[in-house]
Amino acid sequence: MDKVLIRALRIDTVIGVYDWEKTITQSLFLDLDMAWDNRAAAASDDYRHALCYETVSNRLTALITEKPIELIETVAEMAANCVMQEFGVSAVKVRVMKPGAVKTAEAVGVEIERSAKSASGV
Ligand SMILES: Nc1nc2c(c(=O)[nH]1)N=C([C@H](O)[C@@H](O)CO)CN2
């Protein structure tokens, strides 16, 4: 299965459970593996057949920074739903890392895998 990848997309936003976190901006780093058949884009060398990682990155940044969020689980789910519903991605793996959240860890995070099939509950 072909994929389009995004690595360490930094999104600066209001994220966290605690009151003090709701008054500051923190960085999240997103990795996405998006199932996409790249053959049409490669054969035609035509951008219109490509899943544009720049457009996806910009959309995710706008979406996640729209309003404060408590859990990184919510961020992962929002990102997965967005790429499937708005960009027609059939399956996606999303990892959300929150550096500095645990003093003794370099980063903590969550990872989810979703597909159009599992999203509809079938
Ligand atoms: N599974 C999770 N655990 C925790 C989260 C989270 O988003 N998912 N968030 C926090 C706090 O916001 C923490 O990051 C503050 O340092 C705690 N646990």
UniProtKB/TrEMBL annotation:
Source species, domain of life: Bacteria
Keywords: Folate biosynthesis, Lyase
EC number: 4.1.2.25
Catalysed reaction equations from the record: 7,8-dihydroneopterin = 6-hydroxymethyl-7,8-dihydropterin + glycolaldehyde
SMART domains: FolB
Pathway: Cofactor biosynthesis; tetrahydrofolate biosynthesis; 2-amino-4-hydroxy-6-hydroxymethyl-7,8-dihydropteridine diphosphate from 7,8-dihydroneopterin triphosphate: step 3/4
Keyword Lyase: yes
This protein's name: 7,8-dihydroneopterin aldolase
Species of origin: Shewanella jiangmenensis
